Amino acid sequence: MRVILEAQHAVGHLQPRGVGHYAIQMIQTLLRRNTFEYGLTFFDCNGEAGNRERAVKHFGSFHVPFYECNELDYRVASRDDARYGIKTYNEWTGAEGAVYHFMSPVCIPVSLNGKMIVTVHDLSWCSSPGILSEHETDLFKIGRQRIERTSPIIITDSESSRNEILKYIDGVRPEQVKRVYLSYDEKNMFPEKTAAVDNADGRYLFYVGAFERKKNIARLIKAFNIVAEKDRELKLVIAGKPTWDDTTEIYDAVSSSPCRDRIVMPGYISVEQKRQLYSNALCFVFPSICEGFGIPVLEAMACGCPVITADNTSLPEVGGDAAVYVDACSIEQLAWEIERVTASEGLRKEMAAKGLVQVKRFSWDKTAGQVENVYRDAANIL
User: Fold this and answer.
1) pLDDT by residue (tens digit) across 207-238?
2) How far apart are the two ends of the chain, measured CA to CA in Å?
3) Is 287 within 8 Å of 328 (Cβ atoms)?
4) Which pLDDT does position 25 carry in this prediction?
5) Is 173 exposed, middle or buried (0-12, 13-18, 19+ CB in 10 A)?
6) How far apart are CA 291 and CA 50, in angstroms?
7) 66: helix, strand or coil
8) Which residue(s) pair with 116 in the sheet?
9) Positive or negative CA dihedral for 158, 162, 165, 171?
10) Rounded to whole angstroms, how far apart are CA atoms 152 and 123?
Protein backbone atom coordinates (compact mmCIF):
# COMPACT_ATOMS: atom_id res chain seq x y z
CA MET A 1 0.00 0.00 0.00
CA ARG A 2 1.22 3.48 -0.84
CA VAL A 3 0.88 6.08 1.92
CA ILE A 4 1.52 9.79 1.35
CA LEU A 5 2.77 11.71 4.39
CA GLU A 6 2.33 15.49 4.42
CA ALA A 7 5.67 16.87 5.60
CA GLN A 8 4.92 20.61 5.39
CA HIS A 9 5.02 21.10 9.15
CA ALA A 10 8.26 19.12 9.42
CA VAL A 11 10.13 21.18 6.83
CA GLY A 12 8.46 24.58 6.91
CA HIS A 13 10.45 26.15 9.76
CA LEU A 14 14.13 26.62 10.51
CA GLN A 15 13.42 26.09 14.21
CA PRO A 16 10.49 23.66 14.54
CA ARG A 17 8.32 23.52 17.63
CA GLY A 18 5.18 21.68 18.68
CA VAL A 19 3.57 20.34 15.52
CA GLY A 20 6.91 20.50 13.69
CA HIS A 21 8.61 18.23 16.23
CA TYR A 22 5.64 15.85 16.06
CA ALA A 23 5.79 15.71 12.27
CA ILE A 24 9.54 15.07 12.18
CA GLN A 25 9.42 12.29 14.78
CA MET A 26 6.27 10.73 13.35
CA ILE A 27 7.52 10.65 9.77
CA GLN A 28 11.03 9.47 10.65
CA THR A 29 9.64 6.60 12.74
CA LEU A 30 7.20 5.51 10.03
CA LEU A 31 9.96 5.59 7.40
CA ARG A 32 12.28 3.65 9.69
CA ARG A 33 9.66 0.95 10.23
CA ASN A 34 9.13 0.77 6.45
CA THR A 35 5.80 -1.06 6.78
CA PHE A 36 4.30 0.62 3.72
CA GLU A 37 5.52 2.35 0.59
CA TYR A 38 5.80 6.02 1.49
CA GLY A 39 6.04 9.36 -0.27
CA LEU A 40 6.35 12.86 1.24
CA THR A 41 4.55 16.02 0.14
CA PHE A 42 5.15 19.68 0.90
CA PHE A 43 4.82 23.14 -0.59
CA ASP A 44 7.91 24.97 -1.83
CA CYS A 45 6.59 27.67 -4.10
CA ASN A 46 9.22 28.32 -6.78
CA GLY A 47 11.80 26.68 -4.52
CA GLU A 48 12.02 29.90 -2.48
CA ALA A 49 11.22 28.59 0.99
CA GLY A 50 14.06 26.10 1.36
CA ASN A 51 11.65 23.33 2.29
CA ARG A 52 13.30 20.79 0.00
CA GLU A 53 16.66 21.35 1.70
CA ARG A 54 15.09 20.72 5.10
CA ALA A 55 13.28 17.67 3.73
CA VAL A 56 16.64 16.28 2.62
CA LYS A 57 18.10 17.07 6.04
CA HIS A 58 15.37 15.27 7.99
CA PHE A 59 14.37 12.48 5.60
CA GLY A 60 16.98 12.18 2.85
CA SER A 61 18.64 9.12 4.35
CA PHE A 62 15.43 7.12 3.90
CA HIS A 63 15.50 7.52 0.08
CA VAL A 64 11.79 8.27 0.00
CA PRO A 65 10.33 10.21 -2.95
CA PHE A 66 9.45 13.89 -2.42
CA TYR A 67 6.42 15.45 -4.10
CA GLU A 68 6.41 19.21 -3.83
CA CYS A 69 4.05 21.88 -5.01
CA ASN A 70 5.97 24.73 -6.63
CA GLU A 71 2.92 26.47 -8.14
CA LEU A 72 0.96 27.43 -5.05
CA ASP A 73 2.17 29.15 -1.88
CA TYR A 74 1.35 27.29 1.34
CA ARG A 75 -0.03 30.48 2.90
CA VAL A 76 -2.49 30.83 0.01
CA ALA A 77 -3.50 27.16 0.18
CA SER A 78 -4.18 27.42 3.93
CA ARG A 79 -6.61 30.34 3.48
CA ASP A 80 -8.11 30.36 -0.01
CA ASP A 81 -10.52 27.51 -0.70
CA ALA A 82 -11.34 28.76 -4.18
CA ARG A 83 -7.70 28.91 -5.30
CA TYR A 84 -6.72 25.65 -3.55
CA GLY A 85 -9.79 23.88 -4.96
CA ILE A 86 -8.91 24.53 -8.60
CA LYS A 87 -6.97 21.26 -8.54
CA THR A 88 -6.94 18.18 -6.37
CA TYR A 89 -4.12 17.79 -3.87
CA ASN A 90 -2.91 14.97 -6.09
CA GLU A 91 -2.61 17.35 -9.03
CA TRP A 92 -0.92 20.09 -7.02
CA THR A 93 1.78 17.75 -5.71
CA GLY A 94 1.92 14.91 -8.26
CA ALA A 95 1.56 12.37 -5.43
CA GLU A 96 -0.70 9.35 -5.79
CA GLY A 97 -1.48 7.01 -2.91
CA ALA A 98 -4.22 5.03 -1.22
CA VAL A 99 -3.96 6.95 2.06
CA TYR A 100 -2.86 10.54 2.77
CA HIS A 101 -1.86 11.59 6.30
CA PHE A 102 -1.86 15.31 7.10
CA MET A 103 0.00 16.25 10.30
CA SER A 104 -2.20 19.25 11.15
CA PRO A 105 -5.63 20.55 10.11
CA VAL A 106 -3.96 23.68 8.72
CA CYS A 107 -3.85 23.39 4.93
CA ILE A 108 -5.62 20.06 4.52
CA PRO A 109 -6.95 19.69 0.95
CA VAL A 110 -10.19 21.06 -0.38
CA SER A 111 -10.16 18.21 -2.91
CA LEU A 112 -8.36 14.85 -2.69
CA ASN A 113 -8.46 11.52 -4.50
CA GLY A 114 -7.71 9.00 -1.74
CA LYS A 115 -8.43 8.32 1.93
CA MET A 116 -7.64 11.34 4.11
CA ILE A 117 -6.31 11.13 7.66
CA VAL A 118 -5.60 14.29 9.61
CA THR A 119 -3.95 14.74 13.00
CA VAL A 120 -5.80 17.27 15.16
CA HIS A 121 -3.63 17.90 18.20
CA ASP A 122 -6.22 19.86 20.19
CA LEU A 123 -9.05 22.36 19.90
CA SER A 124 -7.90 24.71 22.63
CA TRP A 125 -8.98 27.68 20.56
CA CYS A 126 -12.56 26.37 20.93
CA SER A 127 -12.45 25.20 24.54
CA SER A 128 -10.48 28.27 25.71
CA PRO A 129 -11.48 31.19 23.44
CA GLY A 130 -8.79 33.83 23.11
CA ILE A 131 -6.01 31.47 24.16
CA LEU A 132 -4.40 31.57 20.69
CA SER A 133 -3.59 34.56 18.53
CA GLU A 134 -6.21 35.78 16.08
CA HIS A 135 -3.99 34.65 13.21
CA GLU A 136 -3.70 31.08 14.48
CA THR A 137 -7.39 30.92 15.37
CA ASP A 138 -8.39 31.96 11.85
CA LEU A 139 -6.21 29.23 10.32
CA PHE A 140 -7.67 26.55 12.60
CA LYS A 141 -11.22 27.72 11.85
CA ILE A 142 -10.58 27.17 8.14
CA GLY A 143 -9.13 23.75 8.91
CA ARG A 144 -12.19 22.81 10.97
CA GLN A 145 -14.51 23.87 8.14
CA ARG A 146 -12.57 21.68 5.70
CA ILE A 147 -12.76 18.73 8.11
CA GLU A 148 -16.53 19.19 8.39
CA ARG A 149 -16.84 19.17 4.58
CA THR A 150 -14.47 16.27 3.83
CA SER A 151 -15.06 14.02 6.90
CA PRO A 152 -11.56 12.49 7.19
CA ILE A 153 -10.41 10.01 9.79
CA ILE A 154 -8.96 11.99 12.69
CA ILE A 155 -5.96 11.03 14.81
CA THR A 156 -5.57 12.94 18.06
CA ASP A 157 -3.05 13.00 20.90
CA SER A 158 -5.15 12.30 24.01
CA GLU A 159 -8.58 11.40 25.36
CA SER A 160 -8.96 15.03 26.38
CA SER A 161 -8.45 16.19 22.78
CA ARG A 162 -10.72 13.43 21.48
CA ASN A 163 -13.54 14.74 23.67
CA GLU A 164 -12.93 18.29 22.40
CA ILE A 165 -13.10 17.11 18.78
CA LEU A 166 -16.40 15.30 19.32
CA LYS A 167 -17.79 18.40 21.02
CA TYR A 168 -16.61 21.14 18.67
CA ILE A 169 -16.43 19.66 15.15
CA ASP A 170 -19.85 19.16 13.60
CA GLY A 171 -20.74 15.77 12.16
CA VAL A 172 -17.76 13.85 13.56
CA ARG A 173 -18.65 10.32 14.71
CA PRO A 174 -16.92 8.70 17.72
CA GLU A 175 -15.52 5.85 15.60
CA GLN A 176 -13.98 8.43 13.26
CA VAL A 177 -11.60 9.78 15.95
CA LYS A 178 -8.60 7.66 16.99
CA ARG A 179 -6.59 8.47 20.10
CA VAL A 180 -2.88 7.79 19.64
CA TYR A 181 -0.52 9.00 22.36
CA LEU A 182 2.69 10.72 21.31
CA SER A 183 6.16 10.25 22.76
CA TYR A 184 9.36 12.25 23.24
CA ASP A 185 12.82 12.34 21.68
CA GLU A 186 13.98 9.06 23.20
CA LYS A 187 17.41 9.25 21.59
CA ASN A 188 18.35 12.64 23.02
CA MET A 189 16.46 12.92 26.30
CA PHE A 190 18.22 11.18 29.21
CA PRO A 191 19.78 12.26 32.53
CA GLU A 192 23.02 14.19 32.06
CA LYS A 193 24.54 15.94 35.05
CA THR A 194 26.78 18.68 33.66
CA ALA A 195 28.23 22.08 34.33
CA ALA A 196 26.13 25.21 33.85
CA VAL A 197 24.46 26.07 30.55
CA ASP A 198 25.22 29.77 30.13
CA ASN A 199 24.41 31.30 33.53
CA ALA A 200 21.72 28.74 34.38
CA ASP A 201 23.46 27.13 37.30
CA GLY A 202 22.93 26.28 40.93
CA ARG A 203 19.36 25.98 42.17
CA TYR A 204 16.90 26.72 39.39
CA LEU A 205 13.42 26.00 38.09
CA PHE A 206 13.11 25.31 34.38
CA TYR A 207 10.50 26.04 31.73
CA VAL A 208 10.91 25.42 28.00
CA GLY A 209 8.39 25.98 25.26
CA ALA A 210 6.71 28.61 23.14
CA PHE A 211 6.00 32.06 24.53
CA GLU A 212 2.24 32.03 24.11
CA ARG A 213 -0.81 32.66 26.27
CA LYS A 214 -1.74 29.07 26.94
CA LYS A 215 1.68 28.30 28.45
CA ASN A 216 0.83 30.54 31.43
CA ILE A 217 4.36 31.93 31.78
CA ALA A 218 3.34 35.19 33.46
CA ARG A 219 1.71 33.27 36.33
CA LEU A 220 4.81 31.08 36.60
CA ILE A 221 6.94 34.22 37.04
CA LYS A 222 4.60 35.55 39.72
CA ALA A 223 4.71 32.22 41.58
CA PHE A 224 8.50 32.26 41.33
CA ASN A 225 8.55 35.72 42.90
CA ILE A 226 6.78 34.37 45.98
CA VAL A 227 9.16 31.44 46.42
CA ALA A 228 12.30 33.41 45.51
CA GLU A 229 11.66 35.94 48.26
CA LYS A 230 12.32 33.11 50.74
CA ASP A 231 14.88 31.13 48.73
CA ARG A 232 17.52 33.71 47.86
CA GLU A 233 19.54 31.30 45.69
CA LEU A 234 16.67 30.12 43.51
CA LYS A 235 16.65 31.04 39.82
CA LEU A 236 14.06 30.64 37.06
CA VAL A 237 15.22 29.63 33.57
CA ILE A 238 12.67 30.33 30.82
CA ALA A 239 13.81 28.94 27.46
CA GLY A 240 12.00 29.46 24.18
CA LYS A 241 10.94 32.28 21.94
CA PRO A 242 7.85 34.31 21.04
CA THR A 243 5.35 32.99 18.48
CA TRP A 244 2.45 34.89 16.94
CA ASP A 245 1.04 35.70 20.37
CA ASP A 246 1.37 39.07 22.08
CA THR A 247 4.11 38.43 24.64
CA THR A 248 3.85 41.80 26.40
CA GLU A 249 2.41 40.18 29.53
CA ILE A 250 5.43 37.88 29.85
CA TYR A 251 8.05 40.58 29.45
CA ASP A 252 6.11 42.91 31.75
CA ALA A 253 6.09 40.18 34.40
CA VAL A 254 9.86 39.79 34.05
CA SER A 255 10.63 43.52 34.14
CA SER A 256 8.40 44.09 37.19
CA SER A 257 9.72 41.08 39.12
CA PRO A 258 11.63 41.98 42.29
CA CYS A 259 13.80 38.93 41.46
CA ARG A 260 14.34 39.74 37.78
CA ASP A 261 18.11 39.43 38.16
CA ARG A 262 17.51 35.73 38.87
CA ILE A 263 15.31 35.13 35.79
CA VAL A 264 17.41 33.70 32.95
CA MET A 265 16.04 33.76 29.39
CA PRO A 266 18.47 32.01 27.02
CA GLY A 267 16.11 32.07 24.01
CA TYR A 268 15.83 29.15 21.61
CA ILE A 269 18.07 26.34 22.88
CA SER A 270 19.60 23.28 21.22
CA VAL A 271 18.55 19.73 22.01
CA GLU A 272 21.78 19.24 23.96
CA GLN A 273 21.21 22.37 26.03
CA LYS A 274 17.64 21.36 26.71
CA ARG A 275 18.73 17.93 27.96
CA GLN A 276 21.30 19.52 30.26
CA LEU A 277 18.86 22.09 31.61
CA TYR A 278 16.23 19.43 32.36
CA SER A 279 18.80 17.15 33.98
CA ASN A 280 20.19 19.76 36.36
CA ALA A 281 17.00 21.62 37.32
CA LEU A 282 15.39 21.28 40.74
CA CYS A 283 12.15 20.78 38.85
CA PHE A 284 10.46 21.47 35.54
CA VAL A 285 7.42 23.73 35.87
CA PHE A 286 4.79 23.55 33.12
CA PRO A 287 1.55 25.20 34.33
CA SER A 288 -0.10 25.26 30.91
CA ILE A 289 -3.75 26.31 30.64
CA CYS A 290 -4.42 23.62 28.03
CA GLU A 291 -2.42 21.01 26.09
CA GLY A 292 -3.22 18.47 23.41
CA PHE A 293 -0.46 16.28 24.83
CA GLY A 294 2.47 17.99 26.56
CA ILE A 295 5.68 16.40 25.26
CA PRO A 296 7.90 18.55 27.56
CA VAL A 297 6.45 16.70 30.56
CA LEU A 298 7.86 13.43 29.19
CA GLU A 299 11.14 15.05 28.17
CA ALA A 300 11.70 16.30 31.71
CA MET A 301 10.85 12.93 33.25
CA ALA A 302 13.18 11.15 30.82
CA CYS A 303 15.99 13.41 32.06
CA GLY A 304 15.26 12.55 35.69
CA CYS A 305 13.70 15.94 36.43
CA PRO A 306 10.70 16.26 38.80
CA VAL A 307 7.65 17.81 37.12
CA ILE A 308 5.06 20.29 38.37
CA THR A 309 2.30 20.76 35.83
CA ALA A 310 -1.38 21.71 35.56
CA ASP A 311 -4.30 19.42 36.36
CA ASN A 312 -6.18 20.17 33.13
CA THR A 313 -6.79 18.70 29.65
CA SER A 314 -4.27 16.00 28.64
CA LEU A 315 -1.60 16.68 31.25
CA PRO A 316 -2.74 14.10 33.85
CA GLU A 317 -2.86 11.49 31.06
CA VAL A 318 0.77 12.20 30.25
CA GLY A 319 2.17 12.69 33.73
CA GLY A 320 0.31 9.86 35.47
CA ASP A 321 1.20 9.52 39.15
CA ALA A 322 4.73 10.87 38.59
CA ALA A 323 3.90 14.60 38.47
CA VAL A 324 2.63 17.15 40.97
CA TYR A 325 -0.53 18.86 39.69
CA VAL A 326 -1.83 22.38 40.30
CA ASP A 327 -4.71 24.60 39.26
CA ALA A 328 -3.24 26.58 36.35
CA CYS A 329 -5.03 29.73 37.50
CA SER A 330 -3.80 29.63 41.11
CA ILE A 331 -0.50 31.46 41.57
CA GLU A 332 -0.60 30.67 45.28
CA GLN A 333 -0.98 26.92 44.80
CA LEU A 334 1.76 26.87 42.17
CA ALA A 335 4.10 28.77 44.51
CA TRP A 336 3.26 26.43 47.40
CA GLU A 337 4.05 23.31 45.32
CA ILE A 338 7.28 24.82 43.96
CA GLU A 339 8.39 25.57 47.50
CA ARG A 340 7.44 22.07 48.68
CA VAL A 341 9.31 20.33 45.87
CA THR A 342 12.42 22.51 45.91
CA ALA A 343 12.72 22.19 49.71
CA SER A 344 12.74 18.38 49.77
CA GLU A 345 15.52 16.37 48.15
CA GLY A 346 13.76 13.17 49.15
CA LEU A 347 10.55 14.20 47.37
CA ARG A 348 12.49 15.17 44.25
CA LYS A 349 14.23 11.79 44.17
CA GLU A 350 10.90 10.02 44.55
CA MET A 351 9.33 12.08 41.76
CA ALA A 352 12.32 11.54 39.46
CA ALA A 353 12.17 7.76 39.98
CA LYS A 354 8.44 7.69 39.23
CA GLY A 355 9.02 9.82 36.13
CA LEU A 356 11.58 7.41 34.70
CA VAL A 357 8.98 4.64 35.08
CA GLN A 358 6.19 6.75 33.57
CA VAL A 359 8.07 7.56 30.35
CA LYS A 360 8.46 3.86 29.58
CA ARG A 361 4.75 3.81 28.73
CA PHE A 362 5.49 5.93 25.65
CA SER A 363 7.59 5.42 22.53
CA TRP A 364 7.46 6.69 18.97
CA ASP A 365 7.65 3.12 17.72
CA LYS A 366 4.49 2.27 19.66
CA THR A 367 2.86 5.45 18.36
CA ALA A 368 3.79 4.65 14.76
CA GLY A 369 2.46 1.09 15.06
CA GLN A 370 -0.92 2.42 16.15
CA VAL A 371 -0.91 4.97 13.32
CA GLU A 372 -0.18 2.19 10.83
CA ASN A 373 -3.29 0.39 12.08
CA VAL A 374 -5.29 3.53 11.30
CA TYR A 375 -3.88 3.45 7.77
CA ARG A 376 -4.97 -0.16 7.38
CA ASP A 377 -8.46 0.61 8.59
CA ALA A 378 -8.68 3.63 6.29
CA ALA A 379 -7.80 1.52 3.28
CA ASN A 380 -10.08 -1.32 4.42
CA ILE A 381 -7.14 -3.68 4.72
CA LEU A 382 -7.68 -6.41 7.33
Assistant:
1) 999 898 899 999 999 999 999 999 999 999 99
2) 12
3) yes
4) 96
5) exposed
6) 30
7) strand
8) 100
9) positive
10) 16
